[in-house]
Specification:
alpha/beta, Rossmann fold, 6-stranded mixed beta sheet, 6 strands, 52% helix, 12% strand
Length: 163
């Protein structure tokens, strides 16, 4: 199973500026791990990301351009045409849903309560970064044991024999 994933802007901001679990997710997106997923972005997500990093965290234009170039290289940018209005309290969250629908994504990863409260939209599951990392770890574990690459420890008994 190959996952198609949309990361909400708040997850991208956290990954790029703070680190932690969102950054670990980006490592998976880059494909430097046993399990990789397809990352989908939209022009709205990229613009909102640049705006937030610039206005709230004072990122320079060259730094923003480098980050955007890396994201575009790692992911697929989809243009959305269908307008969704499911979340009235925060209209920008609807743009994340639009991206996921257009990309035919399996998952949206978000820290936003409006999106998380939906739990699912048109078959697209919505979860936190921690929940998504658990899924990636399970998939990595399953793949490594299936391919025989999982390292197992050899337990020694007190008499020096393997147990």
């Amino acid at each position: 199973m190959y996952l198609k994933v949309v990361l909400d802007t708040n997850v991208l901001v956290s990954a790029l500026h703070f680190g932690g679990k969102p950054r670990t997710i980006m490592v998976y997106a880059h494909g430097r791990t046993t399990y990789r997923f397809d990352l989908f972005l939209s022009p709205f997500i990229l613009n909102e990301l640049s705006r937030i990093l610039s206005e709230k965290f004072f990122w320079s234009v060259p730094r923003l351009e480098r980050a955007t170039q890396i994201l575009v290289k790692w992911g697929d940018v989809v243009s959305t045409r269908k307008s969704i209005s499911v979340i009235a309290a925060h209209n920008d969250d609807n743009r994340i849903l639009e991206c996921a629908v257009k990309a035919q994504a399996n998952l949206i990863v978000s820290g936003d309560k409006h999106l998380l409260n939906l739990k699912e939209y048109e078959g697209i599951k919505i979860m936190t970064p921690a929940q998504f990392l658990k899924i990636l770890e399970k998939l990595r574990w399953a793949r490594s044991t299936r391919n025989g690459t999982r390292k197992t420890r050899c337990r020694r008994t007190p008499h020096g024999k393997s147990g």
